[in-house]
């Protein structure tokens, strides 16, 4: 499986280490889950925006058809 190297400052790395220890998980698992959440959130926001545009423009689209 391809990998990805991500650089953190010493402070960020320490915070990540503390979070992983507190949750009883690996640092890699914490970072991976954060990236997956960020990707999912972006997709969700895009879908909401597209639905809003379709809703707002529905009347105009009906009249143009």
Automatic annotation (TrEMBL):
InterPro entries: Arc_DNA-bd_dom (IPR005569), Ribbon_hlx_hlx (IPR010985)
Name this polypeptide is given: Arc family DNA-binding protein
Key words, A-Z: DNA-binding
GO annotation terms (biological process): regulation of DNA-templated transcription
Record carries keyword Glycoprotein: no
Domain Arc-like DNA binding residues, every copy: 1-28
Superkingdom of the source species: Bacteria
GO molecular function: DNA binding
Pfam families according to UniProt: Arc
